[in-house]
């Protein structure tokens, strides 16, 4: 089956039918709006695959559908069907050589990063084995978020740039007072120790981010509690890479009296912050 139907464009296309030729320049509509050159066309039982080189990044790409620019609709790859553009075969060969070198360099860097991460995970695993106190049921963490929202496409999201372990808790209740106490352990989150209603976020609903302390979940630092689901080993596996860097461990060893003590009376929870 080599036909696809694009609902938004209300049109069907046969991906087994060739629309462009080798060395032809095409463009991507959406995201970076980059231009590509087709350096090869591969046929299979599922249709045609166009092998591409990004003219800006000099990296490889691939697509199975390239539509005419005169029928432009939405994100996708397009070719200029009125004024088609081509590159010289020698130029394309040079680009392909550069892309191959970039690909090789990326693979080497990726392998080195994996080896580096494995070393950190080994260190973090050993560190967490002694760091997690007996009876711990949750961990208090700080996360640095970077806003990746795009108003043009109505997308709202973020990526986590860094995670810091602030401490552990013997219960799983979400208490902002507890989060504020642990905020003092790390200089970047110390400002969240301030009693400020604007920092308190309660999103315990479908697709929500639970309870967290911070200005916004989309940018800067937030503090939240995560239950220690599963076994101790599973938790250690999850945070081994984070704990491998000692800068991501901001757990202060307090005197026994300097802890959060709790007394449950009937339906009421009394929290005493020492």
Give the percentage of residues in beta strands: 25-35%
Characterize the biggest β-sheet.
Answer: 6 strands, mixed
Q: In the residues, how many domains can be counted?
A: 2
Q: What's the helix count?
A: 3
| Number of E-state strands | 15
| SSE arrangement, N to C | EEEEEEEEHEEHEEEHEE
Q: Looking at the structure, what is the overall shape? A: elongated
Q: Report the radius of gyration as a whole number of Å.
A: 27 Å
Roughly how much helix do the residues carry, as a percent range? Answer: 10-25%
Structural class: alpha+beta
Poorly predicted runs are 254-274
- Provide the residue-averaged pLDDT: 87
Strand order of the largest sheet: 6-5-4-3-8-7
For the termini, the CA-CA separation is 68 Å
Question: Tags for this entry?
Answer:
single chain, 274 residues, alpha+beta, SH3 type barrels, 2 domains, six-stranded mixed sheet, five-stranded antiparallel sheet, 3 helices, elongated
Write up what this structure looks like.
The protein has 274 residues and is an alpha+beta fold. The protein has 2 domains: 3-90, SH3 type barrels, CATH 2.30.30; 132-273, no CATH class. It is built from 3 helices and 15 strands. The strands form 4 sheets. It has a 6-stranded mixed β-sheet, covered by helices on one side. It has a 5-stranded antiparallel β-sheet with strand order 10-9-13-12-11, covered by helices on one side. Strand 11 and strand 12 form a beta hairpin. Helix 1 (89-131) crosses helix 3. It starts with a strand and ends with a strand. Residues 254-274 have low confidence and may be disordered.
